[in-house]
Input
Amino acid sequence: MTVRGSAWLCGCAATLLTVAAAADENPAVKDLTATIALQGLPCGKVTDAHRNGDSDYTATCQDGNRYHVFVDASGRVVVKKL
Output
């Protein structure tokens, strides 16, 4: 492998590691993990989250459970298993 190819490969690996670290440090993922845990529902850790709207998320946990997390009309946080 050439020096140029080696440098490109190292750059790609560093980028992937940075993206993976950023996903773990995402405040929304941490907040969703905490919210689900406070509701007493099994999850472990949120591994994927999709924003459906303002204060409305679909979260996927490491154990395979999926939850709809949203704020209802009265301002309460609701977590429903999907």
Q: What stands out?
A: The mean pLDDT is 78.
